[in-house]
Amino acid sequence: xxxxxxxxxxxxxxKTIGLINADTLELAKEQLRRQKVLVTKLALYKKQPxxxxxxxxxxxxLTRDLHVLLRAGLPLYDxxxxxxxxxxxxxxxxxxxxxxxxxxxxQHLSEALGHYPRIFDDVYIAMIRAGEESGSLTESFEELSxxxxxxxxxxxxxxxxxxxxxxxxxxxxxVIGALLFFLIPSMQELFEGRSLHxxxxxxxxxxxxxxxxxxxxxxxxxxxxxxxxxxxxxKSGKLFRQKLALxxxxxxxxxxxxxxxxxxxxxxxxxxxxxxxxxxxxLAKLVMQHHQFxxxxxxxxxxxxxxxxxxxxxxxxxxIPHLVIRMMAIAEESGNMAKMMQHVxxxxxxxxxxxxxxxxxxxxxxxxxxxxxxxxxxxxxxLLPLTDVSSMIQ
Length: 394
Prior knowledge:
Elements (H helix, E strand, L loop, with lengths): L1 E8 L5 E8 L2 H10 L3 E7 L11 H16 L4 H11 L5 H13 L4 H5 L8 H13 L2 H50 L1 H4 L6 H15 L1 H20 L1 H13 L1 H24 L4 H8 L6 H15 L4 H5 L7 H13 L2 H57 L1
Antiparallel strand pairs: 1-2, 1-3
């Protein structure tokens, strides 16, 4: 039996798009005629590869829409069919059609989502599975939409905070390069045969060296950049970057706040969704995106299985902040871990935002001051000989 995709008009003129199973194209047409619809398009449906991806904003919108439709009382299959019409001209269209097909065949939604690991991560699938088992699928989609929105918001805050310092740094390099590659060489003839100040001689020598070896300098810089980028994408490079981040006080604080925000938020969402604490830890450590923190959670998992308290095990690591440990200990006593982890994630998200604002507020004047000093030195090296020349003329 084959799967066909069709477009049709219902008796009241409403356009419908969907999938239908039939042995042949003619049998598919016959089935649609029995449904009293006017077929406008009918073709064999080609399933899209399961390694496709969706952009984070599209995934967020899709999750929100599923929550709204399920909350309105539509069955899951009808919700998926409705959304595939809305997302007809997007990458989500083929995904939704595939999900419709799999759900219609009797698969659980969590099982169907598992076929697309590049779109739906383990946390997403675990939340859907927990919702299916507890009969609260609508609430699972609501929690997931909040989780994805906050994760995207956090990423946007970090990116936005670093854009201006990076722009200033790039502008600084462009200005210095323009002075050394264009301004200074154009004035070298003016200084030939004259006794120059050591500062002027140094700047002229540097400019001459850069211009004479520009090809090799840019080639080496490009090669180093490519090798560095390749290394940083490898596992060893990621581990080096993470260890380096923890060795720099300012970066270490930002890293800890970001990791704790993600970890506590996911633990909270999973626990509210009905996932056990042990499973929540296994899934939450996947979003930490930091090997050393993941190792701490992995060691704590083993002890939790043995009956030890999570807070006591995390206290053994210097990486976990005292606030997290203290709040966990209180939650273990009160039995309200989900709510407490939500509060902790909110605290660290606010701390992270303040830390980013302080860092950017510090970097901006520092970069501008550095640019001003370098430009002042270069201009001074040019003005010193000109001052001597004007004195001789007088």
